[in-house]
Amino acid sequence: MNSAAHYLVPFQRRGSIVGQADLAALADVVHSPDPLSAGVWRERFEQRFADLTGARHALSVTSGTVALELAVRLLDLAPGDEVIATPQTFQATVQPLLDHQVTVRFCDVDPDTLNMDPAVLESLITPRTRAILLVHYGGLPADMTRVLALARRSGIVVVEDCAHALGAAHRGVSPGALGDIGCFSFHSTKNITTLGEGGMITLNRADWAERVERLRGNEVDGVFVPVTDRAGEEPALLPWMRFSADVYRRAAVGIRGAGTNATLSEAAAAVGLVQLDALERFTERRRWIAGRLDAAVREFPGTRVQQVPEGSSHAYHLYTFFLTAGREAREGFVRALDRRGVEVQLRYFPLHLLPEWRLRGHGPGECPQAERIWFDEQVNLPCHPGLSDDQVDHLVDSVGHALREALIGTGGRRLAVR
Questions:
Q1: pLDDT under 50 in the chain at which residues?
Q2: Which of 182, 169, 168 lies closest to 134 in space, CA to CA?
Q3: Per-residue pLDDT, 252
Q4: Among 95, 203, 231, 382, which is most exposed with the fewest C-beta within 10 angstroms?
């Protein structure tokens, strides 16, 4: 295999482009006398993000993983509760559930979209189901119309992992404003970045937004009530003594857990604000590359592309197609691309087969579609705005050559090209 530095067409190490506008925003932050934490840039970034997605509340955090951890905290899960999750995602989507004594039911995927299959989802819902954790795989929104109909019927909370989906839409609504809680990532590889790491949690419930505000700000997540019987005890408070007021003005009646410091820096928020201005341009570039790849792949039998349902728009964080001629053909195709300097990474290994989930009783056969597609058919190709036109040309040309090479000899004959 090629080393990462020598690929002519690398898989995304940066999913967006950082340019002069980002540098100018950093200079503004550095030269300003304002605080470098929890200041005006964070406020602007969060407000702009809420406006963009249509969510009532958007609160930035230090990573998409932290956003998911806080989302699970909001569920207040108890032993014996059940959560339905997708197996086709990065491990961070479901990893917070390992801290809870709950039953996780992995829902198999639709073979054309790799999103949670609503028909399978319905069969997994029980009276103990508290939440659904889904991902908009690769930037293609899940079938939220059917998912939400099932969830609302049973009072189930829907958590959207939107790490791939910024710039996408389902029936005109942005991911993150479709379900109850949305979690976004601004990692270096994602559709926009906040200097390599960062995240956002979107909500429509004011009480949940207040809890996230406390949790990310290193405060206790608890239930407090006003205290009125301490008249005369409270000393005169100077402005810098504001935290002392809690000792005298409120009492805790229940503590859910400790908070943490998940404050996105002002520098990161400033870059995020600039990146949002470029999001549409980045997304259109991804769609253009995906369109060229779709056209190249469709020339060959034994292939199919990821289907975009009517009413949805795809952000193409990942470009995915399926080589249905068999595992040997898929392996030959990937190796042929590697020889031509095109880097391929397969996203993602079925989560229910990971050791930590096998320890909890999961295993092969639980999600047959996800297993079959990942082991035999799935291919992810580079698709990000950092690719030049020449690199895209080489990528498309290489896909054609590699498919011809891989499909020769399948079944003892050459498959005809359409």
A1: 411-414, 417-418
A2: 182
A3: 87
A4: 231
Q: Given CATH 3.90.1150.10, say whether it is the number of domain 279-412.
A: yes
CATH number of 20-217+260-267: 3.40.640.10
In the prediction, which pLDDT does 234 show?
Answer: 66
pLDDT score recorded for residue 285: 98
Domain ranges of the chain: 20-217+260-267, 221-257, 279-412
Residue 363's DSSP bridge partners are none
Length of the chain: 418
Reduced to 3 states, what is the DSSP secondary structure of residue 341? coil
Instruction: Return the SS3 of 328.
Output: helix
> From CA 32, how far away is CA 53, in angstroms rounded?
29
For 4, the token pair is 């990462």
Distance CA 285, CA 386 (A): 9
Q: Are 88 and 109 in contact (CB under 8 A)?
A: yes
In angstroms, the Cα distances linking 413 to 84, 298, 330, 408, 410 are 44, 19, 16, 6, 6
Tokens for 227? Answer: 């205290």
Tracing tokens 């908009």 back to the chain, one arrives at 136
Tens-digit pLDDT profile for residues 40-94: 999 999 999 999 999 999 999 999 999 999 999 999 999 999 999 999 999 999 9
The pTM score is 0.94
Contact yes or no for 337/11 (Cβ under 8 A): no
Helix (H, G, I), strand (E, B) or coil at 257: strand
Return the pLDDT at 354. 98
252 with 223: CB under 8 angstroms? yes
What is residue 411's predicted lDDT score, i.e. its pLDDT? 47
- pLDDT, residue 250, reads 81
Distances (CA, A) of 407 to 112, 295, 329, 345: 21, 17, 6, 20
Paired tokens of 5: 């530095």
Q: How far apart are CA 278 and CA 56, in angstroms?
A: 22
**Ranges of H-type helices in 182-265:** 206-216, 245-249
